[in-house]
Amino acid sequence: MMRLKAIFLKEMILIARDKRALFLILVFPVFMLILYSYGVTFDIKNVSTAVLDYCAKPASRELLNKINSTEYLNIEYYAENYDDIYRLFLENKIVLALVIPPDFDKKIALGQKTKIQALVNGSDANTASVAMGYQAAIISSYGAELVRENIAKRGLASATGGGVIEKTRIWYNPELISINFIVPGVIAVVMMILGSVLTSTSIVREKETGTIEMLVSTPIRSQELIIGKILPYVIVSFIDIIIVIAIAHFGLKVPLKGSVSLLMFGSLLYLICALGVGLWTSNISNTVSSSQIIVMFLGLLPTVLLSGFIFPISSMPTVVQAITYAFPARYFIVVLRGIFLKGVGLDVLWPQFLFMFVYGLALLVLSIAKFKKKIG
Fold this sequence. Notes:
alpha/beta; 15 helices
């Protein structure tokens, strides 16, 4: 019993001494509870929608008011032509676009059937499927109301009083093949895990083995040490991502419509961000175990849950949406899906590239500053 008590006290003292690990142990369950309670949802609401209303009469406005009165579709843009819709799709501002024909009001007045075109962004297969279901249900409900009204007005005995038919067309992933949507997200997750884990022990291992003092005593500068440590991992990780992208395109048959060189450049920026996360955690940690916990906390979980990989960011609460801006995977997944499925270029994706560049550079500067402080 005395030996058991001694071991128990020893472990308690070790835990109490490692303040960062203790903080993570206490905060981690709370963070996960809040994250899963509010951030993770399979409900998709307020689907961003654009309308191209060639009719622009009370009849079409009545339909749009009905759509906006629901919590499922949110009309955010009124396009003037198909070019506007195309641009909104490329910039990821909408998931769905509705096109109302010029003779919409006349056919409604005559009790004839009329068609509405629905365009869906198929690069996000899950959200596209849900959006298709929403618009079909709302338009069908509106059409049924018109049929009932016409029957009542004309005294018809059967349901032949016109109505509205929606005609759907899917862009970018017309067959809604799930693997085309999932693979780009998996690439972002895998490379974040690989990159952050690779460098998460690079400096803290030196501390545990006692060789950090030897490094400090040498004339090497902080920036030389940090860059020298991260550079080999950049090369190894870049070879990895080339292999992964090749397998995605040639093995899994995910279409690659955009520039390969632009994709490689975006991948390089993302790898620097991932490696920077690991390097920074290694720098602020005192043990390998605490460094790996921080990597899981900052790298893996936000990449899976808060990047738009599985759950659409637009369906998350506003506070959680704001948190997602702090994680580079949110931007890299947009880059991957944009280049793979849409074939867009830097004119559309430059905000994502700019953020990853600033993020990676900031992590390197912070790591150098932190290590320099330790040397001093």
